[in-house]
Design goal:
Blueprint (H helix, E strand, L loop, with lengths): L7 H6 L3 H48 L2 E4 L2 E4 L3 H7 L8 E6 L4 E4 L18 E6 L5 E9 L8 E8 L1 H36 L1 H12 L15 H55 L7 H28 L7 E4 H11 L1 H6 L3 E3 L12 E4 L1 H18 L3 E10 L4 E9 L6 H6 L18 H11 L3 E6 L6 E8 L6
Parallel strand pairs: 9-11
Antiparallel strand pairs: 1-2, 3-4, 3-7, 5-6, 6-7, 8-10, 11-12, 12-14, 13-14
Helix pairs in contact: 2-4, 6-7, 7-12, 8-10, 10-12
């Protein structure tokens, strides 16, 4: 199967930058040179014709100056030789005729036709016209009609010359124009090539600097000696490198923290298994120690919880796994609250569900993943039951704005108030407070924050009513159900 040919436009877009700059400039220069020389050639021909026409008119007036009238009859007083000298041309022979209006020839070396009646001109005003002669030669003729004021017969003075010499002069002028322009191209095009190559040198230098940056070198590029047109590109590149550096550092810190957090349960498992193996070797008939098995189960459960939290954290990072659908946030929050009523009662605490919102369903509609939002609410309820006060409440509120709305899911407890520094640290991965509970992983709020941000919302940690307890606010943009 033959390869599909690449379109010319695609090839042009993938060409080198200097070629994309050079070719339009060369094309523009060539087009400008052609237009300029063409216009100059046209003006040169027009000026040449005007100049030769003036010379023809001067020759006709010189012949007309030799006319005299006696008793109303026209006479040419100069000799034939004088008439030839008056219209002499060193390039090509000129032709002339001096004749009366009734056809009597006074002097001349060639019979020239009179202008057509519709070409008549005022007395003593030259009239120019073209007409063919023998041999296919085109003649340019000037006709001058002379008539004395006192009366007398009218006389036509006609002078003609071949248009060949006009073309010769025009060609000589054109050569004088085209030749320098052509020679200039041999100088201008290399200068354009060199200038563009020289102008793109900073871009090649920046490209070399980017290539030199390896995966471990995310330092910003230097903006010194960078042209003004490239500083914005360098600034965006530095911003990208800064974000990449922050992301790499966060990933490294996350991996180190995850390894540290997993090290404790794994070490506990190895220690308990080692104790069981020593007991088994000492007395194979002795049954397993129930206390050791309970501790092993507790450590394994903690490790499994940590693994689930890590998987949920990684899942929240993948935006592609987040569902994109419209759903009722109040219903999701109510379902999550219902699932935690049993654990809340077992812990001796009360869990207040959100108020019924059946009549305001559209106000609580959001776009995103109901599954992940349910996990977020469940995680917040779990934290509140573990570390908060005796009463936990879940609320769903809707705010109407001018052009959009917001939906808030609030999870609050009546436990001890937290200071601002602690509330800020609660969103950091693997952070755990000094509450004395060792089973937590410190990833719950980080996972919740990332899921909410993927849905276009915000998660904030604040104090409860009258400054008591802790309140987590999930702020999501409201959506409208299609009709």
């Amino acid at each position: 199967m033959s390869a599909t040919p690449t379109p010319a436009t695609s090839r042009w877009l993938h060409a080198s930058l200097w070629r994309q700059l050079l070719m339009p400039l060369v094309g523009l220069w060539v087009a400008s040179a052609l237009v300029a020389t063409g216009a100059a050639y046209w003006f040169a021909g027009r000026t040449t014709n005007q100049s030769f026409d003036r010379l023809l008119a001067d020759d006709a007036r010189a012949l007309a100056a030799q006319l005299r009238w006696h008793d109303g009859q026209a006479q040419f007083v100069a000799s034939r030789e004088t008439a030839d000298l008056l219209v002499f041309d060193s390039l090509l022979r000129s032709h002339y005729t001096v004749r009366t209006e009734d056809g009597r020839t006074l002097v001349g070396n060639l019979v020239l036709p009179l202008p057509l009646p519709e070409q008549a001109a005022p007395p003593d005003a030259p009239l120019f016209f073209d007409h063919p002669a023998e041999g296919g030669v085109m003649l340019r003729t000037v006709a001058l009609r002379v008539q004395p004021q006192a009366g007398g017969e009218a006389v036509w003075v006609l002078v003609a010359e071949s248009k060949t010499k006009r073309q010769q002069v025009t060609d000589e002028i054109a050569a004088a124009i085209f030749l320098p322009a052509g020679l200039a191209g041999f100088v201008i095009i290399p200068l354009l090539y060199y200038g563009i190559r020289r102008g793109l040198e900073p871009a090649r230098h920046i490209s070399a600097l980017v290539v030199q940056h390896g995966e471990n070198d995310l330092s910003p590029l230097s903006v010194q000696e960078v042209p003004e047109e490239l500083r914005e590109l360098v600034a965006h590149t530095n911003a990208l490198l800064a974000r990449l550096k922050a992301s790499v550092e966060e990933q490294r810190r996350f991996i180190a923290d995850a390894a540290h957090q997993l090290q404790t349960p794994m070490a506990g498992i190895r220690l308990l298994v080692g104790d069981m193996r020593r007991i088994q070797r000492a007395d194979p008939s002795q049954p397993m120690d129930a206390e050791v098995l309970a501790q092993l189960d507790e450590v394994a459960a903690r490790g499994a919880r940590m693994v689930r939290q890590l998987l949920a954290y990684a899942r929240a990072e993948e935006e592609s796994v987040v569902e994109d659908q419209l759903f009722d946030a109040a219903a999701v929050a109510a379902q999550a609250t219902l699932r935690w009523q049993g654990p809340a009662a077992a812990a001796g605490k009360t869990l207040q569900p959100p108020a019924e919102a059946a009549q305001t369903l559209d106000r609580h509609t959001v776009r995103g993943s109901p599954t992940l939002l349910g996990e977020v609410v469940s995680n917040l309820i779990d934290n509140a039951l573990r570390y908060g006060g005796s009463h936990v409440a879940v609320q769903v509120q809707a705010q109407t704005q001018a052009h959009s709305g917001r939906v808030h899911i609030l999870v609050s407890d009546d436990g001890p108030a937290l200071d601002a520094a602690t509330r800020a640290q609660m969103l950091l991965p693997f952070w755990r407070g000094d509450h004395g509970h060792a089973e937590g992983s410190g990833l719950g709020l980080s996972i919740a924050q990332r899921v909410v941000e993927r849905m276009g919302g915000r998660l904030a940690v604040g104090s409860g009513e009258r400054g008591a307890g802790t309140r987590i606010d999930i702020d999501l943009p409201a959506a409208t159900q299609p009709t």
